[in-house]
Design goal:
The chain is an all-alpha fold and 279 residues long. 78% of the residues lie in helices and 0% in strands. The chain is built from 14 helices and no strands.
């Protein structure tokens, strides 16, 4: 049992210890009080009988008798007030309430934790972090996805996921083939066009030219401020020796980059070097 479970169990026991005695033994205390009141009532009856006897004998004047009887009746009414009867009635229901709490409180605590908490955390063996996926596991998942795409060739999102997976694994030719399956579907998506262009450049090993550059220009036509496309356009301009165009693309990109980040520093260095060479 975990420390949390022990603490929760002790907390429930403490709560029951505070509530249970008052509910369970309350009736017994009321019974003692009732016995005491019955004794007091008997005394008051005796006193009233004594007053009536003295009044009948003439030893107690009418006025004194009326005053004494009124005071005695007031004290009698206090002993049998309706509030006492209500308290006894409520207390008589205390034991069923105590029994209900005894069973319901732990059950409600467990049910509440099952709904709102993390039951697996109570089991140390299950709470241990699961081992990370290995390269073999990832490759197996990618192959499974590739097999599924052969059965569902119209699944655009599936092909894009497969293309990104191949690209991540360095299987650029396979990634290009996967992008080619959905080329028309991504024609209006700047990010997918930029990713496709980057993958083509990596697969060919010849840089951003030809179809790859066409895809970059298409992405910028859709969104002139697209960060990924601006970066690739600057790279393509550098490759063909167009420093002015490269500086323009990257300076536009700088406004979108977090100041002081690695990309910010790399872009500024590249821009500075190109400006120095231009001079």
């Amino acid at each position: 049992m975990t420390p949390f479970a022990v603490f929760a169990f002790l907390l429930i026991l403490t709560t029951l210890a505070l509530l249970f005695p008052g509910l369970w033994f309350g009736l017994r205390r009321r019974a003692v009080d009732a016995d005491r009141k019955q004794a007091n009532l008997a005394i008051y009856r005796d006193q009233l009988a004594e007053l009536e006897r003295e009044h009948a004998e003439g030893s107690l004047a009418d006025e004194d008798f009326a005053q004494a009887r009124t005071e005695l009746q007031r004290r009698l009414l206090e002993e049998v007030s309706p509030q006492d009867e209500a308290s006894v009635s409520t207390t008589q229901r205390s034991r069923p309430t105590a029994i209900t709490l005894l069973f319901a409180l732990p059950l409600l605590a467990v049910a509440g934790y099952a709904l709102l908490g993390n039951p697996l955390a109570l089991n140390p063996e299950k709470a241990v972090a699961q081992p990370q996926m290995t390269a073999e596991d990832i490759n197996a998942m990618v192959e499974k996805l590739a097999a599924r795409m052969q059965e569902n060739p119209d699944d655009t999102n599936g092909w894009l996921m497969l293309a990104r997976s191949y690209k991540m694994l360095g299987r650029y030719d396979d990634a290009v083939a996967a992008f080619g399956k959905v080329e028309k579907a991504v024609a209006e998506d700047p990010e997918q066009l930029a990713s496709y262009a980057e993958t083509l450049a990596m697969a060919s090993g010849k840089g951003l030219s030809g179809k790859a550059l066409e895809l970059v220009n298409q992405a910028l036509k859709l969104n002139p401020q697209h960060a990924h496309a601006l970066f690739l356009a600057g790279m393509a301009a550098m490759e063909r020796g167009d420093r002015s165009a490269a500086i323009g693309y990257w300076e536009t990109l700088l406004s979108q980059v977090e100041p002081g980040s690695e990309l910010d520093q790399m872009l500024r260095q590249g821009i500075e070097q190109m400006k120095q060479k231009a001079n």
